[in-house]
């Protein structure tokens, strides 16, 4: 079958493995390369999936504790750390093993090892002292990203964790300092606080989750203050040092000066950087931006015509579902189709308690750019489903183009917000207007109904909420 297009995919995360499977489905001769034993990448092995398993455990603990308010008292949970870890590892093993089976069924050749480009048509893969050469007509770089640690926080110590170390669940420290109040910091702070750690979150900017709308974040921030621990805004960590008695000494710097505090463990969650270094790109024409992202066009093709790049290494947002969609574009482009990456909307979800989710244009962005918008809001205090489920606070909002009523974006905070944002994403993607949402029959009672109720409230016709457009 010498006429089959040979495609090499470097990196088997949620960008790489869908790319390999799609290419194989189209009859291409595919080699998928990754350092890990099975496909899955950071997302399945040390990111999205294990964090969601641990967040599930955290939500069980919190719900059991809070059930007292509705007349159900459970005893304090007994934590069997080994069993929790084994369950979480089993979830990961099941999913990554499943992907390996799919790869075999689709006749994708999986090569374990670290790949480097030799030239624009050759990759060399090293594993356990063995070298395998892979020739390709087209390659897709899907090498992902790694934690980016500011120089003062680079302390090589088992007491200082990155997300992977925290997700390994080695122990539940008495005190945990979380540096960074973004996606990873807040998700892991929720987990360790529920398991029993006293958590302190330090965030450099003036608010948690920079980039998200403040009315959504305020709801989360109240829960974090009540359930997770102390949050210090406008604060950075200037230095970390190990102490002889097994602690870490952190120098915290804020507007009122510096302070030295001891913690059992420290988690650094200050962002991620693209994995574009040490890949042999100098042997190709691939170009990399000063921040390390591989430069690509709308087809995800790099400056080297035979090499494509997708996922975290190809630019923000660093989200698994964005990588998976880029995989489709790159494979279609390799097949010669005029496919392009131009989605009007990519959703984002932070799986904290409560979840925060948004898609499309945020209110903050719209106001900053001077876009003429109106906002439709519905607080969950007016939702029957939320009340009957003893949900705490929540808010659903639409960002609407003034005049036309076209939906430009949506935001949700509340239990299950990550599920609701799917409908909102579809509505924005399809060019729906707020009126369409208002006229769509939603199940009652449900949290999804808050999307319709926000539209009803905007037009002053909500049966459950007196508020109007905001
Ligand atoms: P992030 O960009 O979400 O948050 C980093 C936070 O650290 C920011 O709030 C930033 O202001 C703060 N910060 C930076 N330097 C600091 C310092 N020296 N001291 C104190 N605070 C500092 O990054 P992350 O949480 O590390 O996550 C990385 C990426 O991984 C995210 O951007 C996201 O794309 C992805 N991710 C997604 C999910 C999800 O989809 N649910 C979950 C985890 C990670």
Structure in a nutshell:
Helices cover 31% and strands 25% of the residues. It is α/β, with parallel strands linked by helices.
What secondary-structure arrangement, pairings included, does this model have?
Elements: E1 6-10, H1 16-25, E2 29-34, H2 41-46, H3 48-66, H4 81-105, E3 109-112, E4 114-119, E5 122-127, E6 130-135, E7 138-141, E8 145-147, E9 160-161, H5 163-167, E10 175-179, H6 183-195, E11 198-202, H7 214-228, E12 229-232, E13 236-242, E14 248-254, E15 257-263, E16 265-268, E17 272-274, E18 307-309, H8 320-334, E19 348-350, E20 355-360, H9 363-369, E21 373-379, H10 384-388, E22 395-401, E23 407-414, H11 417-429, H12 434-438, H13 449-458
Parallel strand pairs: 1-2, 1-7, 2-3, 7-18, 9-16, 10-11, 10-16, 11-12
Antiparallel strand pairs: 4-5, 5-6, 8-17, 13-14, 14-15, 19-20, 20-23, 21-22, 22-23
Helix pairs in contact: 1-8, 3-4, 3-6
The chain binds nicotinamide-adenine-dinucleotide (NAD).
The CATH superfamily of the largest domain is known as: FAD/NAD(P)-binding domain
Gross geometry: globular
> The biggest beta sheet, please?
5 strands, parallel
Q: What portion of residues belong to β-strands?
A: 25-35%
| Ligand inventory | nicotinamide-adenine-dinucleotide
Average pLDDT, rounded to a whole number, is 96
| Number of individual domains | 3
CATH structural architecture of the largest domain? 3-Layer(bba) Sandwich
